[in-house]
Fold each of these.
Amino acid sequence: MDYKKKLQQRLYVAYAEVAIGILLIAGAFIFKLDNYFFSSFGLCLAIVGAARVRKHRLITRDEETIRKQMIIETDERNLAIADKARSICFILYFLGSGIAVIVLSILGMHQEAAWVSYPMMLMLAVYFIAYWVMQKRI
């Protein structure tokens, strides 16, 4: 895929993030929800989307900046660092969640332990499915 096309797709995703964030905030106020999750999540999503739009604008100023960014994103060292960071994050998430499930179970908070374990199981299932799909593709 052409790198400029990839950047354009990222811009569309960033615009979608901003729009969804604004819709969540507006929906929380229109429907007078007592739960602040939607307005907080909407605000965070809108801010992240706006930051990505800004980053896209800075990258696409001129051809030289685009070329430098493409080199940064395709550099094998940077890809290896990002892969290692994702791996460490995955391991720490599972260790922390596992410890939380054990502690909550010991404290008799079985329902909370179950709610902590559900995202772990979902993430693990998604990981194995993605691993299986990538194994078939490569």
Amino acid sequence: MIYPLQRPGAPRLFSLFADVGVQYDSNIPAAPSGAGLYDGKHGGVRVVQYVSAELRFLRLPGWLGLVEGNTYQAQYPDSAFSGFDLSTYGLGALLQYDTTIAARALVLSARYGYSWVFIDGDAYSGSHVATASAQLDE
């Protein structure tokens, strides 16, 4: 059987989301006075950007598979806090199967993701996250 590329109610093939904003951060990490980045202030304005994209490569009845990527950027225009500029990047994938058992909906899924974090352009951390789940509705 050949399935249409886009069934009514099926997830879209591709999605893209972008968000830009200005925030006031009242809890910027502090260091002892005179120690590098800290000038006695604890708050400041930051400019943030977030972009995410998903490509759903598998959209068959009962099945959904996707790959996703995202980035979050935060910059402090005040030079006193520029050392706290933050960049994060993430990549991941999801495989999901939906079915019914005894007239009850069952959703099984597995997800993997990796994220990188940079502070002031320097590598800060990297993390792997893998999850598997099962949901049975009553």
Amino acid sequence: MGCISNQNRDIQGKSTGLHVSPLLNTINQTFDTLQMGFSKSLAPYYSDVLSLALSHLQSLLPTFTHYYLTSENEPPTAAEEDAIDLSMIGCPTIDLIAAITRSSKAKSWLQPSTVETLVLTLCGWIQMTEDDVKSI
């Protein structure tokens, strides 16, 4: 189960969200796929992967909050034709964290302080955006 969604588009088909490089999305999805297929080989690196994924979510959260949750400003657009919304970067990263933390090999990373940071960060990412509210 993933939380990847389609780009937000207006009536004329133009993208309306803050965009980031499609490469970041591809990297996150690739890590998730590799984790499923090669979990034993990647297990020694889970702690580093989880720390980087959490750091990535934390660094993007203020921008996500500003443009998608609290601002009347429109998110800036990208010059790239196939750019994706910022929320589409968070989703594969969250999927990756969820998949790894379900395994017993991630127990050493799941310390109380790390879990607290993870929960607080995820609470920021799971808030409903204006588009989410309008689509209900």
Amino acid sequence: MMLNLNECFEEQCKIFLKDLQFGQYNESASVKGIKFCDELETVINGDHLIVVFTRSIKMEPEEAFKLSVSFGLDLTFRYSYLKENKIDLNMIDFKNELIHNGQNILNLLIGRTVLLIAQITAVSSNNPIIAPPIYITP
């Protein structure tokens, strides 16, 4: 079932930095490759949907650099929409809905994550890592 996610939630939301893990750049390590790994978690908590987006940077070799940034989003369900459309929250795969139908919501998290990664890497290595501002499917 495709939800109209713009109607499913109240307009107001809370965005928060959930987690930041950083391992100092090892200048003696010769970097052979870089990979971005994205994760998306969703949890229903009462009348809220909590969404957490995490982007990790993995380098070869691993000791070269470690960075992981997680931002969260707290959305409040609009029960008038849910009731009107007879939507059972327990039957919805919100992770899948957000990936395929909720780019405007994901962009709130991904944009902040990309900017923070660029700022952190610019300070530590003088060359910022500019990650793509899209959800990268595993």
